[in-house]
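Worked problem 6 (solution included).
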Amino acid sequence: MAIDKLTPLAAPPGHSLTGSKGKWPWERPPRFSDPDEAIDYITEKLDTPQSKEGVLKLMLAGITIEEIVSQVAFKGFASGTFNPDVAELIKPAIAIYLMGVADEKGLTPQLFVDESEEEEVDDVTFFKILKQRNPDLFNAMNEEINENQRMQEQEVVRNSMPSAPPPPNFLNTQPEGA
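Solution. The predicted structure is:
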């Protein structure tokens, strides 16, 4: 099933406007509308030893402060803890808090995503991920690639064979004496 195709069973555009209001947490009033209260809430949540250990592991694995902060802000919005405006306003304070956590442990975290590192995924990496995450599709694609390769090899063999002269018939016979 293609991702971009509209199917007969797909919800039409604007469908979300016809449902009951307040169905999702972000449609209800947020728990915190004051950025200071939201910062205090998040830092309390992150101040547990288990949370600090998890965040430090992420930083050691190379996840940037920017990525962690973005996820914390998005999760807070999605859970209805605060609205998107508060989420954006608290990002710098959460980043400073996370840098302090890293500094306590003597870790120098990467702050921002290096845009030069973001590049297209090469075919080898794509197929490794595909084989691990979607083996059925990997096998189907692999079989199709092998079939195409076999067809090309057969075409090369067919084209490399010397062609025999056509058998004589009344259309291609040479007149006698010519």
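Discussion: The chain has a mean pLDDT of 85.
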